[in-house]
Amino acid sequence: MKSIIIIMVVMFCFQSCVQKSFKRNVKVTLDVSGKKNIDSAGIRGEENPLSWNNDFPMQELVKDSLYGAIISGETGYLFAELKFTVNGIFELENMPNRRIIFAQGDTTYYHAVFDKKD
After folding, report:
1. Average pLDDT over every residue of 103-109
2. Looking at residue 38, which CATH number applies to its domain?
3. Is the peptide bond before 49 cis (omega within 30 degrees of 0)?
4. Would the pTM count as exceeding 0.85?
């Protein structure tokens, strides 16, 4: 009898440890109007498709002032941590990462100004 209870407890623990994941879409815009000589803007972060080693490229929306990107992926987390780069240089040096809290709906919208904390 004791072994059956132990097996049931172990099975319950394994079932409850699996975190459900959801498809997340984040539409990001970045104001870079305070910077000059911009060749590229990017995003670096924690989970796929982001990486702390390589830029996730952003597209120029308005010349020399606004960049945008759509990030899509699956995660069980309720937020994402990231930083922006311009010409491969990180923003907010020696400061905490930005944190985007995912919206309840299909898409989360996030607007930032380069090198300025929310």
Report:
1. 94
2. 2.60.40.10
3. yes
4. no
